[in-house]
């Protein structure tokens, strides 16, 4: 079992998996109990606009659910800068809530990680959209960080590479490619 050199843990379940944007000393497959990953947040900045919102992944609380992703361990010297970077990126519209939640790491450890979950009371929350509607939105939306479809394709591909394929994301990637 690796020695835990991390002073801060961060859970990535979407774009953080393939574009963390911060220095880390550990990268471990992990599961977050009690939450499901879904395209349940309208994006008016990064993957859409106020006039034509896209969709981004968020963690929606669901009893009994488990979301797989990556736990990033950050050294003490980088912890403050990492948190500042993450807050600038993830809290741009206050639709995400920053929480510290328990993660089960694939090597048997349990850590508490900074995790960004959706605020179901926020105006950008849109849980429960049918997959076909999600596909149509994702196929056409573009925001400050590029086309919404690139976000979907990158996330689905990286999850598959890690052996963490997500059936809904795989279906959405196939459908969005058809709509393109």
Automatic annotation (TrEMBL):
Enzyme class at the top of the EC tree: lyase
GO CC annotations on file: cytoplasm
Record has Transferase as a keyword: yes
Entry EC no(s): 4.3.2.7
Tagged with keyword Lyase: yes
GO biological process: glutathione catabolic process
Molecular-function annotations in GO: glutathione specific gamma-glutamylcyclotransferase activity; transferase activity
Alphabetized UniProt keyword annotations: Lyase, Transferase
Pfam families to which the protein is assigned, alphabetical: ChaC
CDD domains: GGCT_like
Origin superkingdom: Bacteria
InterPro entries in the record: ChaC, GGCT-like, GGCT-like_sf
Protein name as annotated: glutathione-specific gamma-glutamylcyclotransferase
Organism: Meridianimarinicoccus roseus
């Amino acid at each position: 079992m690796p020695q835990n050199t991390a002073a801060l843990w961060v859970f990535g379940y979407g774009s953080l998996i393939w574009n963390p944007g911060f220095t880390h000393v550990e990268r471990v497959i992990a599961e977050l109990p009690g939450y499901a990953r879904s395209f349940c947040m309208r994006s008016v900045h990064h993957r859409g606009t106020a006039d034509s919102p896209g969709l981004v992944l968020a963690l929606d609380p669901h009893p009994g659910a488990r979301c797989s992703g990556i736990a990033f361990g950050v050294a003490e010297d980088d912890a403050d800068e990492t948190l500042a970077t993450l807050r600038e990126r993830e809290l741009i519209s206050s639709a995400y809530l920053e929480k510290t939640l328990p993660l089960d790491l694939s090597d048997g450890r349990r850590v508490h990680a900074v995790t960004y979950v959706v605020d179901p009371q926020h105006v950008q929350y849109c849980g429960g959209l049918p997959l076909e509607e999600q596909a149509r939105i994702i196929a056409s939306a573009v925001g400050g960080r590029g086309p919404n479809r690139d976000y979907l394709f990158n996330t689905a591909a990286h999850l598959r590479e890690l052996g963490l394929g997500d059936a809904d994301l795989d279906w959405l990637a196939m459908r969005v490619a058809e709509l393109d």
